[in-house]
Batch of 2 targets.
Target 1
Amino acid sequence: MSLSAAANGISDNDFQNIGPAPRPPGAAFNKTKPITKYANQLDLRDRTPGARAGAAGHKKSGWVSYKDDGLLSFLWQKRFMVLSDSYLTLYKNEPTRNNEDPVLQMPLTTVVSVSRTQLKQNCFEVVRSSDRNSSASSSSTGSNGSNSDTSRRSIYISTKTEIELHTWLDAIFAKCPLLSGVSSPTNFTHKVHVGFDPETGSFVGMPSNWEKLLKHSRITGEDWNNNSAAVIQVLQFYQEYNGVGPAPNNSSTSSLPRLNTAQHTSGSMAKPSSDLVPQRNPPTPPSSQGRPKLQVSTAQQQNQSYQQYQNQSQPFSAKHPSPLQSAPSHPQATTPSPRQMYPHAQHQHIQQQQQQRGPYSPSAANKYQHNMQNPYLSNTPPSSKGLVAQRQAPPRPPIGKPNASNASTPPPRLHPQRPSPQAKPTQENGASTAAAAAMRQHQQQDHSPGYLQPNRQAPKKPDAMPKKDVGVTKQKRHQKPTMSNAEIMSKLKSVTINTDPTPYFQMIEKAGQGASGSVYLAERTKLLPYTESHRIEEIGEQHVGDKVAIKHMILSKQPRKELIVNEILVMKDSQHKNIVNFLEAYLKTEDDLWVVMEYMEGGSLTDIIENSPTNGSNHSPLTEPQIAYIVRETCQGLNFLHDKHIIHRDIKSDNVLLDTRGRVKITDFGFCAKLTDKRSKRATMVGTPYWMAPEVVKQREYDEKVDVWSLGIMTIEMLEGEPPYLNEDPLKALYLIATNGTPKLKHPESLSLQIKRFLSVCLCVDVRYRASTEELLHHTFFEMSCDPVDLTSLLQWKK
Ligand SMILES: Nc1ncnc2c1ncn2[C@@H]1O[C@H](COP(=O)(O)OP(=O)(O)OP(=O)(O)O)[C@@H](O)[C@H]1O
């Protein structure tokens, strides 16, 4: 019996609704502790000789409110604070004369953490370690831990204004060696202090580009109140996923604390492609870079994970209305007040990596940070309505027959992957010429400037209207390559045939359009000479007359060539009946790559769903037996990959192809990642948002089970025609994935128990209880699988 099944007392053959997950470990509930302990033990005065001398060279001073973390220190007191090069000193009065005794003097060398807190308005906490040798561990300990560690003491400073708070934070940050590092600061981490004030229901310190994103999203004031940490998480995710995002201050000289594309290359962000490329050094996790970091964990995050466990306890309960169907009209009606939920500090540090930029200039950055009023709490109508009213609802997905008002209705998918029906030549007898012309046109297009947009994936449908620039797109964007161009080319040459393939194939028609190139149906007209075919190992079996799919790519237009190397390597090494078979690849010129694969004439599962005779009716596009068959086949392919410790990371209907014999195969291996003994988890944000597991959206570590989640979402696509939240805007969809946990089905009452059980073990938020592919293969749901021939009706539309 499997671990996860055993843990729940269920058999592998009978996955049940697994019920509530165990309480997370106690530590997860450690909210910021009330300031009660150690009061009388505390004496933060530094009475070492020469302490006063340090204050002499002060750089910054001013009146603040102060309190320490002692029991009796329940009062905020007005103090004059002086930051010198060596000390942070507090005086009762402004030290105009030299005989003013400090109330407290803290050597800056002992400061291990400075972070914003919501204890009071415009408030921050300074944590000091009395153990000077413990500085190295400062990054992992912070305010939450300070009270339980007698070697750490906290003081709290509150300023009159937000601007003052930031200037103090910046100044202290710059002077404390354990925080800023006195050596050349390269590749260090800076934090944007974004907080949520439960009293006003507003964000503080919100970077303006985030504010803009949020304003234009459908994330409501109610959502802010319900889970402000998740709002911040998804904003961060969104921005990182999309590169810089729609930053208002887009000047490259701006010091806006935003993530830039370059910064990701050495951090944890998006380096999927080269995961399987042997030469690449494993990326260094951000936590091991640069100066010590302050803690990230917050009371709110912990609280949120608790909520999440709660959410997953009742998957697909008909008692809970789908979030897609109805939203509560007022937060008070359904949710506890923010205070009840987060009685203590609610701040979250957004870590940002800065690379090779020299000392950070936080003051400049602060100009772009704002307090963002919760529109839900303002006098104006509730934000949920207000915001929605200001923008158009995203268009519905193109359900129904091809050609149905495609021109006027842009596909709402953020990452549309479907080939345009128009891509198919209208006259069969002119197919070959049409395909050749299409290929020529494609090549011209490929070379035209701007064909591939940086940071975005090129639209797949040539006829699609331009998408609104709010989409989260698949992460194939301009990034600093993890391998040099020469390395990539050399790797590519070693896995391709360096010959012009034109004489060996006859192009028949264009079969589809991907982000990296076009896919053509072609016929093999001639066999490669023996010498050529044996220059690369394990070439696929070839027969004249074979129909093949050829993916044509212009290398100079690929933002990340290593993705392609990755894809070829995985496909070459993954011969399985449920994986699209790689045949060979040609490097026609240094810039012109042809990848030859087996042809899957049924097209993608997305096509099949959209063109199903029952789509748009009250019935599911596919029947449960058809779904069971397709999911089982996909699961077998995944299980094969997982056995090899490969995660696909982009499982969705677009990446599952069918042929006319009803064979089902997984494709698109550019985002695969290999897990090794040393790296049994990944943290890179990869995939397509609607199919992403919550742990990916929340940027937690993940493993193969992200594919199981995506498989569950793909099952919902076959049941409902689209993945959950597809009609939500991307940011809101991310928020819902992060906070809702297991998505609700639209019509659970019409589904069999088997499929609901199956979904509940795929879409289990707690990864420990999510089934593995091995476990899924024994699931009773698969017993209802149809025969491949029963898919015929679904493939009719292709004829
Ligand atoms: N082996 C194949 N047989 C038949 N059609 C295919 C095959 N591979 C791809 N296609 C068609 O071409 C379309 C684009 O495929 P491609 O793999 O390029 O898409 P993508 O994964 O979205 O793009 P990219 O990998 O460039 O991001 C698919 O949606 C599918 O319709």
Note: DSSP finds 25 helices and 21 strands in the chain.
Target 2
Amino acid sequence: MIRLAKKYLVWWAVVAAVLFMVAQVSSDLYLPTVTSNIIDKGVAQNNVSYIWSQGFKMLAVAFVGVISAGGNIFFAATQSQKMGKKIRSALYRKIIYLADQDLDKFGDASLITRNTNDVVQIQNVMIQVLRMMVMAPIMLVGAMILAFVKSPHLTVVFLCSLLVLAVSVSIVMMFAGPLFRKLQGQTDKLNLVFREGLTGVRVIRAFNRDSYEQSRFDKYNNKYAKTGTKVFMITSLMFPLMTFILSGTNVGIVWFGAKMISHNTLAVGNLVAFMTYATQILISFMMLSMLFVFIPRAQASAARINEVLDVKDSIVDGENVVEPKSSDASIEFDHVDFKYGDTDKLSLSDINFKAKSGQTVAIIGETGSGKSSLVNLIPRLYDVTNGEIKINGTSVKDMTQKDLHKLISITQQKAVLFTGTVRENMLYGNENATDDEIWHALSIARADDFVKEEGGLDSRVEQNGDNFSGGQKQRLAIARTILKNADIYVFDDSFSALDFKTDALLRQALNSDEKIQKAITVIVAQRISTVADADLILVLSNGKVVGSGNHKELSENNPYYRAILASQIKEGDDQNA
Ligand SMILES: Nc1ncnc2c1ncn2[C@@H]1O[C@H](COP(=O)(O)OP(=O)(O)OP(=O)(O)O)[C@@H](O)[C@H]1O
């Protein structure tokens, strides 16, 4: 947490918070002495003018206390909130730029908890640190010295109380500390199940698994509630315990103090002041103990945040990057092997192919054969395990990721749309595009008709594009891809959600577009009809290329391609029957 504080707190604002707190504590410590003076020198000696002058002094000191408290609260609150804001922003920036394989290590739910709940823990503790952590030690030491000056004998009473309090607080902390850490882990689990339930709500209903999912959620919810209850009960016990010890201390002070007054060894005013100091001492001690309960919890949160911030991006720009050539588009896979993270199995092995400007490469193969893995290597979403990928003659590792991404426009298998308008979503592809260019891209993607029906480019896109059908979402994503000026257009199974007729019309429009004609198009598909026109078709099976050529060559010679063809002709017959 110290590391985060050093990085995200502004030093002069922290100094200002400390100075204001010192002023507030000084005023709090001085007030009992003024009270004692009023009683002993004013009331006892019937000196009205002294009472008035000390009364005004008291008000002035109290006023300084209020102003100082205000100053401290202002700096403590703004600094802790700003620190939270900066951490959230840093986490988001990190997450946005991290490679998929690095993000996979944390999981979405945990990243969301870290960016919300964990940051709030740190924020809350930071405001306490900037207030109590400064106030408590000064108040504790100051009040102890002043109490000792008022009466060294009575000091023994609160020293005993302090000992009792220390033992009680240690016991509470011993139980509460581990529980706080447990609670944080359980928050992660709860968010994970909740998120899975939310994203899979339709599947849950369709499979009648509502009660199963409900009981799974309840299991984690119960665990969380149980730990939360324990934590709350234990920490809440601190307050009545403290009131009890405080009352005991006051009884002790009054008991011994009264005896000392009767023996004329203590003035009444000093007894009153002493009682106030004793209360201040015990409260300061209590504050410090509470902080030591909360700090480990925030410490656990800080560790979870640092874990994300410290992740080394496994895909970084090389040191000797060059600017990619933008003349003739080309793509080359040279003996490429690829496996995910620490897995042993290669998802792709020995992939070789070349394509140049104006060509279409299609990739076909059974589920899990490695089609998406292959196309994800082109924009370097993952790095190859062996071999090399060259775009326009330059290795993807020898150009910056920014330059590389400028050359490629991709539609992922799962269409992703952002909340906003259709226009805003389209401009993701090309922020300078005119309305005419957007409509042109929409018409190639066969999306213009339904966008017009919805109300044009300003029509709303709800969260996840949920106000559009699966096929409509795909078409909007395809239009966004087309709108970008790129050398390589990649469509990862983007036509699967379209009916045969729309699929055919879309590809026809795509092939006749001037911009696309000059580029390389890479299409991943399941249907032979989608890939039949391609210049080069790669047939994948188990991560290996088991056939390559055009439709005519493959349908004559390749058993894998012929098997896919046969199954789809049979499927077509079945559908026609
Ligand atoms: N993030 C990942 N981590 C580990 N293994 C993965 C990951 N994504 C895919 N795989 C594995 O890699 C192999 C190829 O998956 P890939 O998604 O590339 O296949 P695909 O041909 O695109 O399948 P589909 O047609 O179902 O989309 C599969 O065995 C899969 O289990």
Note: The domain at 2-309 is CATH 1.20.1560.10 (ABC transporter transmembrane region fold).
